[in-house]
Amino acid sequence: MTEASEATRRTPGTPCWASLMVHSLGSTEEFYADLFGWEYEPGPEQLGPYVRAMLDEREVAGIGELPPDRHLPVAWTTYLATDDADATAESIRSCGGTVAVGPLDAGAAGRVAICSDPLGAIFGLWQAGAHLGTWPAGTSGIPVWNELVTQDASTVGKFYEHVFGHEARAHADASDDFDHLTLFLEGRPVAAVHGVGRALPHDRGPHWMTYFEVEDTDAAADRVERLGGRIITPPREGLSGRLATVADPEGAAFTLVHTRR
Question: Parallel, antiparallel, or unpaired: how do β-strands 110-116 and 122-128 relate?
Answer without folding.
Answer: antiparallel
